[in-house]
Structures are given as C-alpha cells and as structure tokens.
Amino acid sequence: MKSNHEIDFRIYGEELQCVEIELDPQETVVAEAGSFMMMDQEIQMETIFGDGSQQTSGLMGKLFSAGKRLLTGESLFMTAFTNLGQSKKHVTFASPYPGRIIPMDLSSLGGRLICQKDAFLCAAKGVSIGIEFQKKLGTGLFGGEGFIMEKLEGDGLAFVHAGGMVVERELNPGEVLKVDTGCIVAFTSSVDYDIQFVGGIKNSLFGGEGLFFATLRGPGKVWIQSLPISRLAGRILSLATGPRREEGSILGGLGNLLDGD
C-alpha cells in the first residue's frame, strides 16, 4: 500500500507546458511557490513549513527539512493544495521556462530520485523533498551546478521540469555517460555521479566549454536537458549587456548605426 497520496494528471502544451492534477476528495499535492497556475473552487491552498511529507515529524524534523531547502536556493515554505469538495477537482501548475514537464513515478524508480536543484515542480503529498550532497572530493571542489542536488523520496508521483528537449537514457552496469553539469535533470539513486577534469591545455583554453563535466555511471536511468536555465540566462545577459553581434548579417556594425544602436 502506498504511503503517498495517489494523484492523476494530464500534461498540456509543447514548449511551454503545464500539468493539471486531478485530486479526489481530501487528496493533496504540494508545489514550489510560484508554480501555481489555476484551480477549482473547492481546493484549499495552504502555505506549509518544509515539504509536508509524512516522513517528517516533530518540530526539529520540520526545521531540519526546511533548513535543507535553503541550501538548494529554495524557499523555507511550500504550498499544499487539498481538495475539500465531494467530487474530483483540478489544480494546474506551469513550467517556469520553455521545456518539458516530466512525471516521475517514484515507486517504479526505487523510491528515490536525484535531480537538479531547480528542477522540482510539484508532487503528491508524502513525497519528501530534501538535498543530496555529492560526497566525492572532485564533485565538491568543482561541481558547480551539480554539487548540491535535490533528493525526492517516497512512492508517489513527482513532477520535474527541464529546459529545451529532454533525452532519457538507460545506462547498463558500468556504462559511462559524460554530460555538462547543467544539462543533468535527474538520475536514479543507482547511478554513480562524479566530476571529471577536461584534460589538455588546448581544451581548457580554447574549447569554449567548462573545464569540468559530470560522469554518470550505470546502472540506472538518467534524464538530460538540452537547454539549462543557467545557459539560457547567461546568453540573454551577454546580449543585453554587451555589444550586439549581427550573426549572418552583411551590414554587421553598420546595421547597428542605421537603426540607432
């Protein structure tokens, strides 16, 4: 018997997706602040301390659970949506940037999933949302985005979002996949995660990529995103603050002069 609430869902859209959760009477879904889109009238919205999981009990447990969320850059509080009506009701959550919403059935993934610290969107009540420190020295020193990750535990449904397209890979025992740290969305707990140095002075100086990448060693499932939000934000920032580049334009800088820039 599942300890988490069992919820039904439907995902709408292509590039800018939202997920509609169907709640039976007294069922609850928890979500990150800022992901709410709309809900039916008889759903009650309540701010809770920590993740509201059934695994967390007592004041100290709740304080510890909420404190861990601060390390991932998230709020101390989450929002719980409970159906107080007598029939099925719906609540909808939206992805914060273009990409995909991925439903994760934790009961079929070993009860534990490691994901990028900004990937969690919402989950059935009872799913525990904590942090996962990557313990290896290389990861700790150079991991960047991948050093502190979120840990989802339980036997219910959780939803994570990713930027751009998502590639799902099943790694065989001993099979290694090398990935940019920001492109990792999630992986099952059986996957071994580490950081590897990109060797070669020419690679380091002229490669145009980071000096380190993640290595994921099977067995297990991994989900990879084509457009991490950090990469998108960095490109927008560089275009907003630096001189404009006219890729493919014959006019180049002359075009900027003609349009007043």
SSE topology sketch:
Blueprint: E1 8-12, E2 18-23, E3 28-31, E4 36-39, E5 43-49, H1 58-71, E6 77-83, E7 89-94, E8 99-105, E9 112-115, E10 120-124, E11 128-133, H2 137-142, E12 148-153, E13 157-163, E14 166-171, E15 176-179, E16 184-188, E17 192-197, H3 201-206, E18 212-217, E19 220-225, H4 229-241, H5 253-258
Antiparallel strand pairs: 1-2, 2-7, 3-6, 3-10, 4-7, 5-6, 8-13, 9-12, 9-16, 10-13, 11-12, 14-19, 15-18, 16-19, 17-18
Tell me what you see in this structure.
The chain is α+β, with helices and mostly antiparallel strands and 261 residues long. The protein has one domain: Double-stranded beta-helix (4-Layer Sandwich). Helices cover 17% and strands 41% of the residues. Strands 5-6-3-10-13-8 form a 6-stranded antiparallel sheet. Strand 1 and strand 2 form a beta hairpin. About 2% of the residues have low confidence. This is TIGR00266 family protein.
